[in-house]
What we know:
Layout: H1 2-7, H2 28-47, H3 54-57, H4 65-82, H5 89-107, H6 111-132, H7 143-159, H8 163-168, H9 172-175, H10 177-203, H11 205-209, H12 212-220, H13 223-245, H14 265-290, H15 294-297, H16 303-309, H17 311-331, H18 336-367, H19 371-395, H20 402-417, H21 421-434, H22 443-448, H23 455-464, H24 468-486
Helix pairs in contact: 2-4, 2-13, 4-5, 5-6, 5-20, 6-7, 7-13, 14-18, 16-18, 17-18, 17-19, 18-19, 19-20, 21-23, 23-24
Amino acid sequence: MTSLNKAYPAPQTVWTAPEPKPRPAFTRRDWLLLLACFALAALFCHCFDMSRSLPARCWLARPGIGFTLFLLGGLAASLLYLGRRPYSRGQYLMIAAYAALALSYTLLGDPLLKRLNYLVCLGVVPLTLFSLAGLSNGSPWEGTALTQTLRRLFPNLFRFSLRPFAALSRVEAFKSRKGGALLTGLLLALPLLAVVMVLLASADAVFGSLFTDLGDWLQTLSLGRVGWIVLRTLVVGLCGFSLLYSLNQPPRPLTRRETSRRLPLLSWNVALLLLNAVYLLFVFIQFAVLFGGNETAAIRGGFAEYARSGFFQLVAVAVLNLALLLLARRAWPEQLSLRLNGSLLLASTCVILVSALWRMTLYIRAFGLSVLRLTTLWGMAVIALAILLAALKLWRPQTKIYRLLLAVTLASWLAFNYCGVDKLVAEYNVDHYLAGELEQVDVQYLSDELSPAAIPALQRLADDSEVLSERVAARRAITEIRRDARQLAWWDMSLPWLIKE
């Protein structure tokens, strides 16, 4: 046995280190993308200058054409970086929605809608870009595309942010003699150029006048403010580059999350039964008090105050009911008891929604219309559609409702943006005040919170009102709007603010 072992020794395993993965090449197109991202970051930081005072940052006209250029520039840079690809009809529709949302900052002037559009951009922009890059499976109008987009968005904002620095260290041009000579020449010429320009400007008055504005602008800048602007531009540019650079990189596989053990059917039914019992009591009170007439509602300090007191709470309850029903249906989609409890919950939610609508209607009749109140009416219409689709999904689980809900919500929101909300609100309040249906008209709201689209209504109020104070306030409001319009910079300008005296 020993001789056999000496004749045939056991093979020895030699450990070899794994070969390092080759780093992806940083091409010229990637460098151009980096430059475009820094340009867009500079524009973004210019539109949202955090060094300005809070009233200046939140001024009602901001932002305008600057933010439109930022959004459209990001879309154009993404399309050019991705190259020519075949896109589906759903992707073209998403591009159209993206463009309409971006143009709203130039074509519209209402500040509330602009702020709400920030939230819409947080969903539409990454959903569009990831869909064009093929990082979300299927159509962008499917529910899976939204979940995949949300799971990839935040990691991709930082995943490739340091890639340009790593690529810069491997650029052969800086390692060669010509590249080193070029870099040395630039470093040598910049300080000499500054000294020469100062000397020439002092030697010739005409030459020096060309740089007078530049010198005045440099004097107004402080070192801390310049450093803050550079730092913000660097961070925003690198994050934007990381996001757009990830569009053309192999995506990381999304590991399927282990689904937790679902709750027993009895748990869901008990929760729904208890909620339905409370909602039935609430429904009884609504029919006895709110729907019974304004005289009964006056017990809470007037029907308008009673109407206002619980509107947003009722809308929040409706949203929570829909979320709870969605979770219960996903856990037990085919159970009859859950369907019956869910149907009763949806019916109670409908009454709650009608109660909220009734309250808001009473409040509008008493105090007039505003953009926020009009926006809540749109939100209730969307919730009503969601309730209808939830009922359909409850009894027909195979029905796909997400695509229809997303399409109707996004299309109706864009239509709501472009329907002239400011003019509609101003005309409604002035018309009902002049007709005697409103006790007073809030001239300060029409001038401070709306765009110049409210000027025609204010002009009618100044011409037709029988109350001297209202006429004077309307004329003063028109003057203030025109003064504010003259103070706008080009990046804050939008179409309604391009008014003439």
